């Protein structure tokens, strides 16, 4: 699933091709995604100029004057740029044709994604975005994390996945940040003092910025690529994620994978406490 670095990389790869361009035609398949694509509402962007692409957590927001399109890539969603006569990938649910002759395709085989249109004025108060927490790269991240951690006994790994606390984290970077901060993913959040939470917030920022610089993480199963088909190269830098049984580079211990709330937690039990 794309997380903040992948979604931000996609945003940056889309910007030069989309910003300032007019949408000349929209083809939307009425389909049931996490929020269904409604072809009638997508018609609102026809003839509109795309002014800006923003990211909020793992959501991408395309602004067309007073209309906004909100995308979430879910498990398998992709936003890709294509020439208008290029063959369409299976599961292409939405096509925005631009005056430049290019097209933006929203492709989502597993259908956990979202592609909705709303009034731009409603963005902040509407369900997908209203409850999102602080951006992990923003100045308020540490305050948000410290406040939420103090109030809950859930594991710190699960707290990092809670989008109402920090918006944009997923399982890869939650595990990697905990590794960098030498914190066990199983620790109840409220048992971590302010100093360790401060260290964790710094580790989160560091790992996200490193991953962003590498264009995100493309795992060996393929999966994520940016809007022009480039894979990210951060996978070689993963310290624990997907590395069960391997040796911890920091202490020589053995990395373990344990299921936690239905999702894999990767850690080195020797140096993460
Ligand atoms: Zn270790």
Mind explaining what this structure looks like?
By secondary structure, the chain is of the alpha+beta class. 25% of the residues lie in helices and 21% in strands. The strands form three sheets. The chain has a four-stranded antiparallel sheet, covered by helices on one side. It has a four-stranded antiparallel sheet with strand order 2-3-4-8, with helices on one face. The longest helix is centred in the last third of the chain and has 20 residues, at 194-213. It is globular. The two termini are 27 Å apart. The protein binds zinc ion (ZN). Zinc ion is lined by residues 248, 250-251, 253, 268, 270-271. Zinc ion (ZN) is lined by residues 248, 250-251, 253, 268, 270-271.
Which key phrases capture this entry?
single chain, 273 residues, alpha+beta, 4-stranded antiparallel sheet, 21% strand, globular, binds zinc ion
Topology:
Blueprint: H1 4-18, E1 23-28, H2 39-42, E2 52-56, E3 59-64, E4 67-72, E5 78-83, E6 92-98, E7 102-107, E8 114-119, H3 127-130, H4 141-150, H5 156-161, H6 171-180, H7 194-213, E9 256-260, E10 263-267
Antiparallel strand pairs: 1-6, 2-3, 3-4, 4-8, 5-7, 6-7, 9-10
Helix pairs in contact: 1-7, 4-7, 6-7
The protein binds zinc ion (ZN).
């Amino acid at each position: 699933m794309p997380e903040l670095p992948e979604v931000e990389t996609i945003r940056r790869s889309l910007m030069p091709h989309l910003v300032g361009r007019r949408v000349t035609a929209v083809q939307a398949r009425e389909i049931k995604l996490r929020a269904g694509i409604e072809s009638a509402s997508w018609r609102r962007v026809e003839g509109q100029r795309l002014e800006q692409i923003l990211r909020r957590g793992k959501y991408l927001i395309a602004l067309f004057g007073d209309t906004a399109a909100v995308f979430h890539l879910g498990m398998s969603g992709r936003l890709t740029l294509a020439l208008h006569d290029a063959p369409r990938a299976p599961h292409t649910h939405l096509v925005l044709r631009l005056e430049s002759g290019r097209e933006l395709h929203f492709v989502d085989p597993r259908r956990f994604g979202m592609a909705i249109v709303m009034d731009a004025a409603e963005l902040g108060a509407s369900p997908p975005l209203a409850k999102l927490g602080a951006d992990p790269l923003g100045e308020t991240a540490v305050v948000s994390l410290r406040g939420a951690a103090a109030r809950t006994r859930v594991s710190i790994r699960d707290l990092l996945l809670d989008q109402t606390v920090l918006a944009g984290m997923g399982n890869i970077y939650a595990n990697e940040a905990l590794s960098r901060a030498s914190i066990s993913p199983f620790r109840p959040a409220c048992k971590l003092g302010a100093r360790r939470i401060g260290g964790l917030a710094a580790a989160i920022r560091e790992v996200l910025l490193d991953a962003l610089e590498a264009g995100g993480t493309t795992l060996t199963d393929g999966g994520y690529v940016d809007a022009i088909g480039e894979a990210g190269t951060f996978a070689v830098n993963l310290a624990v994620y997907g590395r069960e049984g391997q040796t911890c580079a920091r202490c020589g211990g053995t990395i373990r994978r344990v299921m936690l709330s239905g999702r894999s937690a990767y850690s080195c039990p020797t140096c993460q406490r």
